[in-house]
Specification:
131 residues; mainly alpha; 5 helices; 3 strands; flat
Length: 131
């Protein structure tokens, strides 16, 4: 399916994002459909779906649209091949490492929040009569 195009409905189903959200990401420049049908419908490729999945995974970690754009720009350049000068390539890799470290910190914070929420739910459960 690598060369085939998908309409926005299929992309929404595959990414579990709403049509509105996908259109919003297009408006903000985060993802641009690879093509348009003769009727003007947005058409997406597997690469577009992969890009949307990166965005979807960043969102619950609290990354801003600008941060998403920054990471996607860095990975786009890195995916462009070996034609980058070594210094520029290393700078881009450092940027990606920064995002990976930030993601790890945010995941740890979410785990802490989840543990506290579970403790709270257990406390409430302990106050209820046994069934």
């Amino acid at each position: 399916m690598s060369g085939e195009h998908m309409q926005i409905g299929e992309v929404a189903a595959r990414t579990e994002l709403s049509l509105r959200t996908i259109r919003h990401y297009e408006e903000t420049g985060l993802v641009i459909p690879s093509a348009r049908s003769q009727g003007g419908f947005r058409l997406y490729t597997e690469a577009d779906v992969a890009r949307l999945m990166v965005i979807r995974r960043m969102k619950p970690l609290g990354f801003t649209l600008d941060e998403m754009r920054d990471l996607l720009a860095a990975t786009d350049l890195l995916d462009g091949g070996d034609r980058l000068p070594d210094a520029e390539r290393e700078q881009l890799l450092d940027r990606v490492r920064h995002f990976e470290e930030a993601a790890q910190r945010r995941v740890a914070d979410l785990r802490t929040q989840l543990a506290r929420a579970e403790e709270f739910a257990a406390t409430l459960r302990g106050r209820l009569p046994s069934a």
